[in-house]
C-alpha cells in the first residue's frame, strides 16, 4: 500500500461524507485491479453505503439517548 493512501486511510474520521467518498473510490479501484466485474463492484458500493448509513443511524440514536458514541 502506498504511503499517501495509508496516511489518508489512517486519517479518516474527521469528515464523514468525504471519508465515505474516499473509501468508496479506494475500494472500487482495488476491486477493479483484482478483476471484479462492474456489477460486483456496484454491489460492494451499495453495501458500503448501507453500512455507513446504519452506522450514522446508530450513532444518532446513541446521542439521542445520551450515550457515548
Question: Explain this structure to me?
Answer:
By secondary structure, the protein is mainly alpha-helical. It has one domain. It is 77% helix and 0% strand. The chain is built from three helices and no strands. It has helices at residues 3-10, 16-33, 38-64. α2 (16-33) packs antiparallel against α3 (38-64). The protein starts with a helix and ends in a 5-residue tail after the last helix.
Unreliable stretches (pLDDT < 50, length at least 5) are none
Largest sheet: none
Task: Provide the residue-averaged pLDDT.
Answer: 87
List SSEs in N-to-C order: HHH
Helix proportion range? over 70%
Overall number of structural domains? 1
Which range does the strand content fall in?
under 5%
The total of beta strands comes to: 0
Helix/strand-derived category reads: mainly alpha
Termini, distance in Å? 30 Å
Please give the radius of gyration in angstroms. Answer: 15 Å
Shape: flat
Q: Please count the helical segments.
A: 3
Amino acid at each position: 500500500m502506498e504511503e499517501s493512501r495509508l496516511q489518508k486511510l489512517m486519517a479518516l474520521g474527521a469528515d464523514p461524507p468525504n471519508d465515505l467518498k474516499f473509501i468508496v473510490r479506494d475500494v472500487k479501484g482495488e476491486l477493479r485491479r483484482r478483476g471484479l466485474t462492474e456489477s460486483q463492484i456496484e454491489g460492494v458500493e451499495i453495501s458500503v453505503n448501507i453500512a455507513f448509513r446504519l452506522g450514522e443511524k446508530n450513532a444518532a440514536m446513541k446521542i439521542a439517548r445520551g450515550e457515548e458514541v
